[in-house]
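Researcher: Next entry in the queue.
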Amino acid sequence: MFGYQVLGFGAGGSSKEYTMQFYVVAGGGGASPLRGGGAGGGGSRASTQSLFTGDTLNVTIGAGGNGGTHPGGGTTKGSPSSIGGGTVPGTFATITSTGGGQSQQQGGAAGGAAFPTNNQIAGNEGGFSPPEGGDGGAGGPPPNPGSSGGGGGGGADANDGANAGVRQGGNGGAGTATSLSGSPVAYAGGGGGTTQFSGTNGTGGAGGGGNAGAPGQAGTANKGGGGGGGFDPGSAPYPAGGAGGSGCVVVRAPADAFAKITVTGGSNTKGQTPSPDGAATLLTFNETGTIVVG
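Model: Structure for this entry, 294 residues:
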């Protein structure tokens, strides 16, 4: 039931239950230069749970990973996003999504491989079912590193990045669209992999994945997109790989919860919006904050 009364005991108090839908997106990974594989999109997880009058939830938004430079600047994976804790009395199961993997690394969605790593890299680091992210694409075929590309980064759910080919970077895996806001919006696309000299760069997956290039494009902020790999021109200066985009949390609550819910965090918002099954309260978190049910 959507927003019904739960009677208390003793002095005749009452508490109202609000059934809410949650979508938690972690930060995307950062991509490498020099034929870099695309970075993985942030892990993405959905859940439906209830909050009650007096409950408070903590929301943490993961940052995107750093893009790499040559020489000296290493990549990092994205940071996790989560919602839970607060003063909910043991009834809310915390939802955590894993940060996207940097190039050639596992994460919520895995980063794409690059020569000489000619195999896919497993995503879904958290081991969730359904999976929080897809596999990273394999690097281009040996034996000539100059003709090999980097694989595409994995996207949300089980959307794998494409394998690289000869002078062809792999495309990033697609993000997954959620309709909590009333119309489909995609999140956590994987970054495109790149190549060397006259090769073709991979494109980022729908949902904020960065295109490969010179430099690699950053994943979209607050969509958890993976960064695009940095093209290798064969000599200095070497373009950088793209940084990952920060994550977000989207919450849809019943329309009658609008006046009862308060959100904290400067850029976080509360609004009323159409949805597939009628009007709703929409909470959008682009930075760490709280949900308070009055």
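Model: Residues 1-12 have pLDDT under 50 and may be disordered.
Researcher: Noted, moving on.
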